[in-house]
Amino acid sequence: MSIIYERTNGLTKTSTHYCPGCTHGLVHKLVGECLVELGVLGEAIGVAPVGCGVMAYNYFNCDMQQSAHGRAPAVATGIKRVLPDKVVFTYQGDGDLASIGTNEIIHAAHRGEKITTIFVNNAIYGMTGGQMAPTTLIGQRTTTSKSGRTVEHSGSPIRVSEMLATLDGARFIERVAVNNPVNVRRAKRAIKRAFETQLAGEGFAMVEVLSSCPTNWGMEPLDALKWLKENMIPYYPLGNLRNWGV
Amino acid sequence: MAKLLMKGNEAIAEAAIRGGCRYFFGYPITPQNELPEYMSVRLGEVGGVFLQAESEIGAINMVYGAAASGARAMTSSSSPGIALKQEGISYICAAQLPCVIVNISRGGPGLGGIQPAQSDYFQATRGGGNGDYRLIVYAPANLQEAVDITLEAFDISEKYRVPVFIAGDGMIGQMMEPVEIPEGFVSQSAEKDWTTTGTKGQRAPNIINTLYLDPLKLEEHNIKLDNVYKLIEANETRYEADSLEDCDVVCAAYGMTSRIARSSIKIAASSGVKVGMLRPVSLWPFPYGAFDKINPKAKGILCAEMSMGQMLDDVKIGSKGRWPIHFYGRSGGMVPTPDEIAEQLIKIAEGKSV
Questions:
Q1: Which residues of chain A have a CB within 8 Å of the CB of B64?
Q2: pTM of the full predicted structure?
Q3: First vs last Cα of chain A: how many Å apart?
Q4: What's the Cα-to-Cα distance from B178 to each of B7, B147, B167, rounded to whole Å?
Q5: Cα separation of B287 and B318, whole Å?
Q6: Burial zone of A155 (CB within 10 Å; 0-12 exposed, 13-18 middle, 19+ buried)
Q7: What CATH architecture does domain A24-243 belong to?
Q8: Residue A97 in contact with residue A119, Cβ under 8 Å?
Q9: Could A42 and B55 be called an inter-chain contact, meaning their C-beta atoms sit closer than 8 Å?
Q10: Domain that holds residue B65
Q11: How do residues A164-199 score in pLDDT, each as one tens digit?
Q12: Does residue B50 sit in the same domain as residue B180?
């Protein structure tokens, strides 16, 4: 009998705290698989954010640091400058990275820090109970935009990947989604390439993963994936924005 | 070895390097700029890394990452910049990461000014960040003392896994004095089995964390930290005391103000007033016990500061109501003269209200 699928050694055996239907667990798995397949799990140091991913330090089977809200790229910079031969990554949500942590992520990219960022964008603050994020779509209802976000009040949602792709230090930037098996496979390819960017010493790499939040969107998990496809992907187009050597 | 004439900021930087500092993360702010500028040249020469961060917040979080990876990392700033670092300092204390933080302080509040002040005493000793934490705070009064403290700072910080905070004012940073920075200083690096350096698949992951959602676990963590702080109080309290036992009046002052006060004490002596000096070197732990040495019949204690009265709180705590407490301070970058402080000391000795 041959094993055709097993739990990746890139993750610990700890059960996650994520809600039913949340795609964080799936994204964790892809990151863990990439670290194992690249043979760098034992060389990896991850930085967990504040938000739903805060307890990622219990889930990735490698050395981990937990950082202050939005500061993961600065913490990762400190690690990578001390240990340039190690593989350093941050795992951040959209409240953490696209709101409170914009300064840290922009300057990590601007300096071309040789780190890899996994940016999980679910268009809402999950951990705190569904508040509006800078990535919340126009018309989307949240606990702090109860009638739906408007441009007049809050501006238009921020497209982080496009913004970072303007920086020379950002050597790999791609937006993916995990709403169906085809996109999940593409997401994994992008995550692997983002780690390869670091291993090649090229510079900063980020994968933005469009992700669902059934709990705070108030939807069944499958409806949430449908909503992601019909609402998020048109505003946040999938695809590569920067790719070194191509 | 020969003494070198150095500027305070540069002397502190060189002493830090000789004390083992190899990573410096900083952000420009006056009056501490010569410190990162010096580091930007020297760290490269000794195989270290200098990095100018995007902000003070970025810099302190880089220190967090570097210290958690086992490095001897340092940052420096001045008052409003230290204010920005408070979140990171709280996290560093929670995660028990050793590091050295230097404040070459200036007048405040707000953007304040760029002249020397001691108005960050509360910020350093009471914690500008959240939670039950302490910093080991040293306040040098001259450049040689700044060098000697900085040399040892990493060893002390690693011993307790608590940051060492050097509270220098703008005068300490900007003035030049002859200093001796011994080549032969031997660092006592602590064993670090908790750092994140990659598991190599040979051990369980090391996790640097400050989140404890279970209140019982968080309380246990706070008790563990507090036990360390009690040990520091027992072992690391430093002060200088002169003539406390037989004086008419005591002058309590730290840092640069204590040097000015020494001249004031001579002036008072020429008027027949004997003044004792109590100079805390560690602002935390504060030398409360030193007050027990003060002549019970002394007429009072004058607390002199370059602030509106911050160490004053600790002087009141230490005195336990045994002597009248008086205060003289200049603030905003104004520096008290020896005559100003002497006048207050003489008035107290004569029983006049200050």
A1: 65, 67-68, 71, 74-75, 78
A2: 0.97
A3: 41
A4: 9, 11, 20
A5: 8
A6: exposed
A7: 3-Layer(aba) Sandwich (3.40)
A8: yes
A9: no
A10: 4-235
A11: 999 999 999 999 999 999 999 999 999 999 999 999
A12: yes
